[in-house]
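Illustration 12: Gluconate 2-dehydrogenase.
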Amino acid sequence: MKMKYLLAALLPLAAATSAFADDASSSADMIKRGAYLATAADCTACHTAPNAAKNQQFGGGYPLASPFGVIYGTNISSDKQFGIGNWTDDEFVRAVRDGVGKDGQQLYPAMPYDSFTKMKRDDVLAIKAYLMSLPGVHAAPAKTDLSFPFNQRWGMTFWKWFNFDKGELKNDPTKSDDWNRGRYLVDAMEHCGTCHTPRNLTMGMDNSKAFSGGDLGSWVAFNITPDKNAGIGNWSQQDLVTYLKTGDVAGKASASGAMAEAIEHSLQHLTDGDLNAIATYIRSVPAIADDKQTQPRDSFGKPATDVFADRANAVPFDKTASALFNSNCAACHGQSGGGIGKGFHAYPSLFNHTSTGAADSRNMVSVILGGVQRHMDQGEVMMPSFANQLNDEQIAQISNYVSNQFGNPAGATVTAKEVAKMRKAADLTYPPKIEDGTQK
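Figure caption equivalent — predicted structure in token form:
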């Protein structure tokens, strides 16, 4: 997961004016605007190594898993040797919007230039001004070294023929300013389709099904179209704004995985005006249904009653699925699964929740394995990882129990073999490793 720290300089920008004002009249204003735009584009997510120190921000090295191997984020700091310190404006714009590096090499679309191509040139240059205002990171990140034929970057030229619609996004004069600003944020800056749009055979975005959900391996990027069952059709404008700002809407959803990181590093720092613009636009896109989702994801589930019986009869914690839930989950999510507490630090209910109500339960398994951690302006949100405490069969049992009891029974099909595959993808072990490399 992309666990990084935003620069302190970004934190006060939640009160900044809209990122889409006229060009800055001074370099200081341009840098400030560039900082906001870099936050909106979530540049730190891929261009800062995991657990990097604050003085190593934008130094590259973040490993991005792909079906073809690991792609490492590049150094985009102001360093002249390893970063962009010697890049011209045209070279930087070409890399961001066209996917072509300084020396003419084709960039892999792990860099979402198929979305960033829609950005305004002035916005790209404001981001460059901000990056150049920061100290450089004098270090070369790990080098991307894919196997043949994927190491032949010239092949990306053919990929672009099928998947790259080059060109800056233009306003639709028939729509409101909020709608146009929201589309620019969603389609260009925040590149939401990168995760939430399914992929075609060439791994490009299938824009005929835009925002209908994406496969992220061990995670699912949910359908965010206005469909009432599969998507967000029963969410209000304020529900969406609250979720983007805090990562949590009681009785509906709490963010985890890549979405939690996007909220932590980017969305929570946007102005309320821009968050409302995002909500306005995303609620207007065509609704796309999913036959597997027969009712709204947040409408499933009911309180549990078997926890009390397990406790009264002293059922061993590992003998039944409900006993596993009792010993590992009930302390925070409540004996009934209804959550504990109210407000920002509440433990969420497991029923009336979009993750447990999904027909695909991968997100729930991934949360049990890896936990949740969001560094928010309001404080820390955390759920511990159970990868070191529960084996694959136990995690499958808990997941299926939660789906049946609190969520969508269609998701109660997880096997220990599937959990093992997801555990391996996340590089998590059971039993836990100890310092000498052996296991307990």
